[in-house]
Write a structure and sequence with these properties.
This protein is of the alpha/beta class and 275 residues long. The protein has 8 helices and 8 strands; from the N terminus they run H-E-E-E-H-E-H-E-H-E-H-E-H-E-H-H. It has a single domain, classed as Alpha/Beta hydrolase fold, catalytic domain (Rossmann fold), CATH 3.40.50.1820.
Length: 275
Protein backbone atom coordinates (compact mmCIF):
# COMPACT_ATOMS: atom_id res chain seq x y z
CA UNK A 1 0.00 0.00 0.00
CA UNK A 2 2.88 2.39 0.74
CA UNK A 3 4.35 1.71 -2.73
CA UNK A 4 0.96 2.37 -4.31
CA UNK A 5 0.71 5.67 -2.41
CA UNK A 6 4.17 6.71 -3.65
CA UNK A 7 3.34 5.79 -7.24
CA UNK A 8 0.07 7.73 -7.03
CA UNK A 9 1.96 10.79 -5.81
CA UNK A 10 4.48 10.39 -8.65
CA UNK A 11 1.82 10.14 -11.36
CA UNK A 12 0.10 13.15 -9.84
CA UNK A 13 3.08 15.23 -10.94
CA UNK A 14 1.87 14.78 -14.52
CA UNK A 15 -1.60 16.16 -13.89
CA UNK A 16 -4.27 16.39 -11.22
CA UNK A 17 -6.02 13.08 -10.66
CA UNK A 18 -3.56 10.89 -12.57
CA UNK A 19 -2.76 7.50 -11.07
CA UNK A 20 -0.60 4.40 -11.78
CA UNK A 21 -3.72 2.67 -13.14
CA UNK A 22 -2.99 4.38 -16.46
CA UNK A 23 -0.32 1.72 -17.06
CA UNK A 24 -3.04 -0.94 -17.28
CA UNK A 25 -4.24 0.61 -20.55
CA UNK A 26 -1.05 -0.62 -22.20
CA UNK A 27 -2.33 -4.21 -21.82
CA UNK A 28 -5.80 -3.64 -23.28
CA UNK A 29 -6.83 -3.80 -26.96
CA UNK A 30 -8.70 -0.85 -28.44
CA UNK A 31 -10.85 -3.04 -30.70
CA UNK A 32 -13.77 -5.38 -30.08
CA UNK A 33 -15.98 -2.77 -28.42
CA UNK A 34 -16.92 0.87 -28.83
CA UNK A 35 -16.85 3.71 -26.32
CA UNK A 36 -19.32 6.53 -25.76
CA UNK A 37 -17.24 9.11 -23.91
CA UNK A 38 -17.89 12.02 -21.58
CA UNK A 39 -21.57 11.55 -20.84
CA UNK A 40 -22.49 14.29 -18.39
CA UNK A 41 -24.37 13.36 -15.23
CA UNK A 42 -23.98 16.56 -13.16
CA UNK A 43 -22.76 20.12 -13.13
CA UNK A 44 -19.18 19.61 -11.96
CA UNK A 45 -16.22 19.13 -14.30
CA UNK A 46 -15.63 15.58 -13.05
CA UNK A 47 -19.29 14.59 -13.39
CA UNK A 48 -18.68 12.57 -16.56
CA UNK A 49 -18.80 8.88 -17.42
CA UNK A 50 -17.79 6.64 -20.31
CA UNK A 51 -19.80 3.68 -21.58
CA UNK A 52 -18.02 0.65 -23.04
CA UNK A 53 -20.45 -1.00 -25.43
CA UNK A 54 -20.34 -4.56 -26.81
CA UNK A 55 -20.29 -4.96 -30.57
CA UNK A 56 -22.49 -8.03 -30.32
CA UNK A 57 -24.31 -10.11 -27.77
CA UNK A 58 -27.82 -10.44 -26.40
CA UNK A 59 -29.98 -7.37 -25.96
CA UNK A 60 -30.97 -5.89 -23.64
CA UNK A 61 -27.57 -6.34 -21.99
CA UNK A 62 -26.70 -6.13 -18.31
CA UNK A 63 -25.01 -2.88 -17.25
CA UNK A 64 -22.21 -2.42 -14.71
CA UNK A 65 -21.31 1.04 -13.40
CA UNK A 66 -17.73 1.06 -12.07
CA UNK A 67 -16.08 3.48 -9.65
CA UNK A 68 -12.27 3.36 -9.58
CA UNK A 69 -9.93 3.64 -6.60
CA UNK A 70 -7.27 6.20 -5.83
CA UNK A 71 -7.72 6.92 -2.12
CA UNK A 72 -10.35 9.57 -2.96
CA UNK A 73 -7.44 11.69 -4.26
CA UNK A 74 -6.63 10.32 -7.71
CA UNK A 75 -8.05 8.53 -10.72
CA UNK A 76 -9.48 9.26 -14.14
CA UNK A 77 -12.02 7.26 -16.08
CA UNK A 78 -9.71 7.20 -19.09
CA UNK A 79 -7.28 5.05 -17.07
CA UNK A 80 -9.75 2.18 -16.69
CA UNK A 81 -10.19 0.80 -20.17
CA UNK A 82 -9.10 -2.47 -18.53
CA UNK A 83 -12.46 -2.74 -16.78
CA UNK A 84 -14.51 -1.59 -19.75
CA UNK A 85 -12.88 -4.05 -22.16
CA UNK A 86 -13.08 -6.95 -19.70
CA UNK A 87 -16.88 -6.75 -19.64
CA UNK A 88 -17.79 -5.26 -23.04
CA UNK A 89 -15.86 -8.08 -24.70
CA UNK A 90 -18.30 -10.47 -23.00
CA UNK A 91 -21.51 -8.70 -23.99
CA UNK A 92 -21.89 -6.56 -20.86
CA UNK A 93 -22.19 -2.76 -20.96
CA UNK A 94 -19.62 -1.19 -18.64
CA UNK A 95 -19.76 2.37 -17.39
CA UNK A 96 -16.72 4.02 -15.80
CA UNK A 97 -17.48 7.22 -13.89
CA UNK A 98 -15.31 10.08 -12.76
CA UNK A 99 -16.29 11.69 -9.47
CA UNK A 100 -15.03 14.58 -7.41
CA UNK A 101 -11.88 13.88 -5.39
CA UNK A 102 -9.96 15.59 -2.59
CA UNK A 103 -9.23 18.46 -2.10
CA UNK A 104 -12.29 19.53 -4.11
CA UNK A 105 -14.41 16.89 -2.43
CA UNK A 106 -14.92 15.48 1.05
CA UNK A 107 -17.50 13.08 2.43
CA UNK A 108 -20.24 12.80 1.18
CA UNK A 109 -19.52 14.64 -2.11
CA UNK A 110 -18.20 11.56 -3.93
CA UNK A 111 -21.23 9.55 -2.81
CA UNK A 112 -23.58 12.21 -4.14
CA UNK A 113 -21.69 12.09 -7.43
CA UNK A 114 -21.97 8.31 -7.51
CA UNK A 115 -25.72 8.51 -6.96
CA UNK A 116 -26.06 11.02 -9.82
CA UNK A 117 -23.98 8.78 -12.09
CA UNK A 118 -26.24 5.82 -11.33
CA UNK A 119 -29.33 7.94 -11.97
CA UNK A 120 -27.95 8.98 -15.35
CA UNK A 121 -27.08 5.40 -16.30
CA UNK A 122 -30.59 4.31 -15.34
CA UNK A 123 -32.00 7.07 -17.56
CA UNK A 124 -29.97 6.23 -20.67
CA UNK A 125 -29.39 2.47 -20.41
CA UNK A 126 -32.09 1.49 -22.89
CA UNK A 127 -30.77 4.03 -25.41
CA UNK A 128 -27.51 2.03 -25.58
CA UNK A 129 -29.08 -1.43 -25.49
CA UNK A 130 -28.92 -1.90 -21.73
CA UNK A 131 -31.39 -3.51 -19.34
CA UNK A 132 -32.55 -1.14 -16.58
CA UNK A 133 -33.59 -4.17 -14.52
CA UNK A 134 -30.02 -5.51 -14.53
CA UNK A 135 -27.84 -2.60 -13.44
CA UNK A 136 -24.94 -3.53 -11.17
CA UNK A 137 -22.52 -1.35 -9.23
CA UNK A 138 -18.83 -2.20 -9.05
CA UNK A 139 -15.74 -0.58 -7.61
CA UNK A 140 -12.13 -1.03 -6.59
CA UNK A 141 -10.67 0.33 -3.34
CA UNK A 142 -12.24 3.77 -2.77
CA UNK A 143 -14.66 2.94 -5.56
CA UNK A 144 -15.71 -0.26 -3.79
CA UNK A 145 -16.59 1.86 -0.76
CA UNK A 146 -18.71 4.15 -2.96
CA UNK A 147 -20.54 1.22 -4.57
CA UNK A 148 -21.31 -0.44 -1.23
CA UNK A 149 -22.45 2.81 0.40
CA UNK A 150 -24.85 3.52 -2.46
CA UNK A 151 -26.29 0.03 -2.13
CA UNK A 152 -26.76 0.18 1.64
CA UNK A 153 -27.84 3.76 2.40
CA UNK A 154 -31.24 4.51 0.80
CA UNK A 155 -30.70 8.26 1.29
CA UNK A 156 -28.54 8.37 -1.85
CA UNK A 157 -30.41 6.41 -4.51
CA UNK A 158 -33.30 4.04 -5.13
CA UNK A 159 -31.75 0.70 -4.17
CA UNK A 160 -34.28 -1.18 -6.31
CA UNK A 161 -32.25 -0.01 -9.33
CA UNK A 162 -29.22 -1.99 -8.11
CA UNK A 163 -29.30 -5.68 -9.07
CA UNK A 164 -26.04 -6.43 -7.28
CA UNK A 165 -22.67 -5.06 -6.13
CA UNK A 166 -19.15 -6.18 -7.03
CA UNK A 167 -16.70 -4.67 -4.51
CA UNK A 168 -12.96 -5.26 -4.95
CA UNK A 169 -10.42 -4.49 -2.20
CA UNK A 170 -12.52 -1.92 -0.37
CA UNK A 171 -12.27 -0.41 3.09
CA UNK A 172 -15.72 -0.02 4.58
CA UNK A 173 -14.83 1.86 7.77
CA UNK A 174 -15.32 -1.17 9.99
CA UNK A 175 -12.06 -0.09 11.63
CA UNK A 176 -11.31 3.43 12.92
CA UNK A 177 -9.60 5.76 10.45
CA UNK A 178 -6.00 6.43 11.44
CA UNK A 179 -4.43 8.40 8.60
CA UNK A 180 -4.77 12.20 9.03
CA UNK A 181 -5.64 12.73 5.37
CA UNK A 182 -8.58 10.31 5.59
CA UNK A 183 -9.74 11.86 8.85
CA UNK A 184 -9.89 15.14 6.94
CA UNK A 185 -11.64 13.62 3.93
CA UNK A 186 -14.25 11.90 6.11
CA UNK A 187 -14.54 14.76 8.60
CA UNK A 188 -13.57 12.63 11.57
CA UNK A 189 -11.95 9.31 12.57
CA UNK A 190 -15.05 7.23 13.26
CA UNK A 191 -18.40 8.62 12.15
CA UNK A 192 -21.35 6.24 11.97
CA UNK A 193 -22.70 7.85 8.81
CA UNK A 194 -19.54 6.90 6.91
CA UNK A 195 -19.98 3.15 7.60
CA UNK A 196 -22.11 0.99 5.30
CA UNK A 197 -22.93 -1.32 8.21
CA UNK A 198 -24.82 1.54 9.90
CA UNK A 199 -27.46 1.27 7.18
CA UNK A 200 -27.71 -2.51 6.78
CA UNK A 201 -31.05 -2.80 8.54
CA UNK A 202 -32.98 -4.70 5.91
CA UNK A 203 -32.70 -6.14 2.43
CA UNK A 204 -29.68 -4.99 0.41
CA UNK A 205 -28.70 -6.03 -3.12
CA UNK A 206 -26.59 -9.21 -3.37
CA UNK A 207 -22.88 -8.49 -2.99
CA UNK A 208 -19.65 -10.03 -4.19
CA UNK A 209 -16.86 -8.90 -1.85
CA UNK A 210 -13.37 -9.78 -3.08
CA UNK A 211 -9.74 -9.00 -2.30
CA UNK A 212 -6.28 -10.48 -2.76
CA UNK A 213 -4.61 -12.44 0.03
CA UNK A 214 -1.62 -10.08 -0.14
CA UNK A 215 -3.75 -6.98 0.37
CA UNK A 216 -3.47 -4.83 3.47
CA UNK A 217 -4.75 -6.57 6.61
CA UNK A 218 -7.23 -3.72 7.13
CA UNK A 219 -8.80 -4.44 3.72
CA UNK A 220 -9.22 -8.12 4.57
CA UNK A 221 -10.65 -7.36 8.01
CA UNK A 222 -13.08 -4.83 6.55
CA UNK A 223 -14.26 -7.43 4.04
CA UNK A 224 -14.90 -10.03 6.73
CA UNK A 225 -16.72 -7.63 9.01
CA UNK A 226 -18.94 -6.22 6.27
CA UNK A 227 -19.82 -9.73 5.07
CA UNK A 228 -20.75 -10.69 8.62
CA UNK A 229 -23.05 -7.66 8.95
CA UNK A 230 -24.79 -8.55 5.69
CA UNK A 231 -25.28 -12.20 6.63
CA UNK A 232 -26.56 -11.33 10.10
CA UNK A 233 -29.42 -9.48 8.41
CA UNK A 234 -30.14 -12.25 5.91
CA UNK A 235 -28.54 -10.57 2.92
CA UNK A 236 -26.86 -12.52 0.15
CA UNK A 237 -23.10 -12.09 0.14
CA UNK A 238 -20.20 -13.96 -1.43
CA UNK A 239 -16.62 -13.58 -0.18
CA UNK A 240 -13.59 -14.36 -2.34
CA UNK A 241 -9.94 -14.03 -1.33
CA UNK A 242 -7.64 -14.57 -4.29
CA UNK A 243 -4.34 -16.19 -3.27
CA UNK A 244 -1.06 -14.54 -4.15
CA UNK A 245 -2.28 -11.14 -5.37
CA UNK A 246 -2.43 -7.72 -3.74
CA UNK A 247 -4.31 -4.44 -3.95
CA UNK A 248 -3.36 -3.54 -7.52
CA UNK A 249 -3.07 -7.15 -8.63
CA UNK A 250 -6.82 -7.71 -8.43
CA UNK A 251 -7.28 -5.11 -11.17
CA UNK A 252 -4.33 -6.39 -13.20
CA UNK A 253 -6.05 -9.79 -13.26
CA UNK A 254 -8.79 -8.24 -15.42
CA UNK A 255 -6.32 -7.46 -18.19
CA UNK A 256 -5.65 -9.70 -21.20
CA UNK A 257 -2.50 -11.68 -20.61
CA UNK A 258 -2.90 -11.59 -16.82
CA UNK A 259 -6.26 -13.29 -16.32
CA UNK A 260 -4.63 -16.56 -15.25
CA UNK A 261 -3.33 -14.83 -12.15
CA UNK A 262 -6.81 -14.94 -10.63
CA UNK A 263 -10.32 -15.57 -12.04
CA UNK A 264 -11.55 -12.06 -11.19
CA UNK A 265 -13.17 -11.47 -14.57
CA UNK A 266 -14.79 -14.91 -14.62
CA UNK A 267 -16.19 -14.44 -11.11
CA UNK A 268 -17.63 -11.02 -11.97
CA UNK A 269 -19.32 -12.42 -15.09
CA UNK A 270 -20.64 -15.40 -13.13
CA UNK A 271 -22.06 -13.12 -10.45
CA UNK A 272 -23.78 -10.97 -13.07
CA UNK A 273 -25.17 -14.02 -14.86
CA UNK A 274 -26.47 -15.49 -11.60
CA UNK A 275 -28.37 -12.33 -10.68
Amino acid sequence: MQLLTLLTAFFGLFGAGRSPAAMLNLTVPRSGYRVQRDIAYGEHARNRLDLYLPLDGARPAPVVLFFYGGAFRAGRKSEYRVFGEALASRGIIAGVADYRIYPEARFPDFLQDGAKALTRVHEIATEYGGDTKRIFLAGHSAGAYIAVMLATNPAYVDRSWIRGVIALSGRYHELPIGEPIFIEIFRGPSRAETRPSTFIDGKCPPMLLAAGSKDDSAVLENLRKLAAHLRARDNEVEEIIYPGIGHAGIMLALAPGFRRRAPVRADIIRFISTH
